[in-house]
Design goal:
By secondary structure, the chain is an all-alpha fold. It contains four helices and no strands.
Length: 134
């Protein structure tokens, strides 16, 4: 037995006794083609992701501009509503002044204009005043 142990090499494993055949390490054209196709798919997918993110950022920028424009239009709309209410209130005040207080715009012959010495008289004729004495 001692002789058998001496004849065996120290690094004794089943893998060291078998040599890998050279054909197992050869890469066929099909395998290279498969690797190339998969690498191309990975690169193509990466480019698609980059393009998708680019489009998302463009659309997001457009969305932010549209929101800002909407806010400006809402602000202008509220100003116009206030202006419209002001004009409506003026008409209502004039109507109530005539109805309840019996106020009216005097005819032109009853209007007296006062001017300071050395200044030119200013005549403000309001032709749109429909108010007349009751």
């Amino acid at each position: 037995m001692a002789q058998q142990a001496a004849q065996r090499p120290l690094n004794h494993s089943p893998l060291s006794q078998t040599k890998a055949p050279v054909a197992a390490w050869r890469v066929t054209v099909r395998q290279w083609l498969l690797v190339a196709v998969l690498a191309g798919a990975v690169v193509g997918s990466a480019l698609a992701v980059v393009y998708s993110v680019f489009l998302y950022r463009l659309e997001f920028r457009d969305l932010q501009q549209a929101r800002q424009q909407r806010e400006q239009l809402d602000l202008e709309w509220s100003r116009l509503l206030i202006e419209q209410q002001t004009f409506g209130a003026t008409t209502q005040i004039g109507g109530r002044a005539v109805m309840f207080l019996r106020m009216y715009s005097p005819p032109a012959r009853q209007i007296v204009t006062l001017t300071a010495p050395g200044s030119t008289p200013v005549v403000a004729a309001d032709a749109s005043a429909p108010l007349s004495p009751p």
